[in-house]
Amino acid sequence: MNDLEISTKLNYHVSVDCVVFGFEFGHLNALILERTMYFKEQKYIDFKLPGDLVRKDEDLDTAAARVLRELTGLENIYLKQFAAIGTPDRLTRQERDMEWLRQIGHPEEVVVTVAYYALINIDQDRINRFQLQEGARWIPVSLIGELAFDHNLILNDALETLRNELRFNPIGFELLPSKFTLSQLQKLYEVIMGIELDKRNFRKKVANMPYVVPMNEKEKGVAHKPAQYYTFSKKIYNKTRKSTFDIIV
To answer: pTM (2 decimals)?
Structure first.
């Protein structure tokens, strides 16, 4: 499909924006896209969230999944819709944003965006299968500066939603490798929630979760005492889960 064919299939009033989270080396990262443009006769580079206009032949979830597939080359990524934003001036608050829209041939009209967050475990095996879109990069959430349009607000809303969901649903395991240590699991919750957890109490709570299954395998090649690996069983969770899930309390 060429550019002209794609343009005739676009809905210029509805878009999807995706906040893609990944956890690596004790940091919560987000996938950010570099945006290059000429502004006031100078080359200007800044950053934005991944997103696109919705095509007329696809629904919202399909559009978001397409954005992620084109961004990473991966299928079946954990994806959840969390907001819809339709502020009239959301695309035209900054002069450089208006100029970028002109340069890509986008009509200066109100666009309602439906926001999603996605969770990717970025362990080494999966990194090797990534086909990151040119200009995409992982940046620690705490180090992300000013983004285009209203994307900082969308990012902050996604982070707050993630924190709320993390307490009551076992989505944190989507950010971990298939096998993990209890220290990695605790670090994940501490980093995302911005709190410090008591090691003893945390492990006592996890010990009462039958879906966090110990493996007959330990770390190798580490300077400290090798830790045991665990895995998350979605099948056991679905059979044994209660009405609430809270790994923090």
So the answer is: 0.88
Helices 182-193 and 199-207, axial angle in degrees (round to 10): 110
CB 148 within 8 A of CB 35: yes
Backbone phi and psi for residue 241, each to the nearest 5 degrees, phi listed first: -65, 150
Q: Are 215 and 228 in contact (CB under 8 A)?
A: yes
**pLDDT per position as a tens digit, 95-150:** 888 878 887 777 667 789 999 999 998 765 555 556 788 889 999 999 999 999 99
- C-alpha 58/C-alpha 67 separation (Å) is 12
Which pLDDT tens digit goes with each residue over 176-188? Answer: 988 999 999 999 9
- Would you tell me how many other CB atoms lie within 10 Å of the CB of residue 191? 17
Are the CB atoms for 116 and 130 separated by under 8 Å?
no
